Amino acid sequence: MRTLSLIIFTLLATSVSFAASEDKLGQIFFSDIVPYLTEKSRSDFFVGKAGKKIHYYHYKVNVPKGVIVVSPGQGEPALKYAELVYDLKDSGYDVFIIDHRGQGYSERLIADRAKSHVEKFSYYVDDFAFFIKTIVQLKNYKSSILIGHSMGGAIASGYLVQKPRDFNHVLLSAPMIQIDTNPYPELVAVSLAHTLSALGKSENFAPTQKPYDPNEKFPDQRSTHSWLRFRLEQELWKIYPQLPLDGTTVGWVKTSLDWTLKMRRQKHVYQVPTTLFQATKDSIVKPRGQDLICAGSPGFCEKVVVKDSYHGILLEGDKFRDQFMKRLFSILESE
Predict the structure, then answer these.
(1) Which end of the chain has fewer CB atoms at under 10 Å, N or C?
(2) How far apart are CA 270 and CA 65, in angstroms?
(3) Is 20 contained in some domain?
(4) What is the pTM of this model?
(5) Which residue range(s) make up the domain with 149?
(6) At a CB cut-off of 8 Å and minimum separation 6, what does 304 contact?
């Protein structure tokens, strides 16, 4: 397996980062960062909605000041957040990261295991609520922080509709409150997804979706400006080839579009201090949905615009990623 330790010397140092800045990341990613999650965290399962096995990691400290719960995005294995856990290793906080149903090490939902599918979007929220109630909250933490990226931000928001004050702080990275349905207008995409589903094509790839490409070229993606983080992730999935998922199914698109339309009608979703990070060059989700849901929680939701960032803020270059991380650490220091 070829790591990328030599390549990073071609990169210039960027802004001050956390446990590992971008110019040092390649040297320690496979030797220190990935093992920190896989070897120093507890890997376990619980039974979620409809009897599906749901996987999670629990990184535990001796005397925790509190807890951080991470809700990953669509198709993202919990292992993708190894760098985040490594950044938090000296924070004094326990960290939980869930593998949402159908992805990561959680039980797959259809015969084609590589496709990103879900029966109902509400099942994600049901799993998450059970996870929080029966596993996380048993520890009686004094302080709690919820982090959600993209689809994980939509799941976190759905949970907060039910339990608005379960966390002390919420940080959302490019939350999926309105999906970018390009090349179709949203209502056309909704109608098309419902029609295809009614025709028995729920488990087929949705239009424009395709299998995961392990050899995708950096210029062809719009998730990160960081060539190094992009390449390290590709190398990571060569070691764990069972984890990356293909594109989404018709069924996933249908239920996700229905859910996000519903979420945009909700008021007062956020009733604790919430920071919503919005990427200005996001081709996955649209800013309008984020604007609406944040404006619907006046006094609690603060929007931070990450200028020129692509969708994957937590895997972006340091100058983008650090805006999220500095806010997170300022919260940790204030608790």
Answers:
(1) N
(2) 23
(3) no
(4) 0.94
(5) 32-334
(6) 275, 276, 277, 278, 323, 327
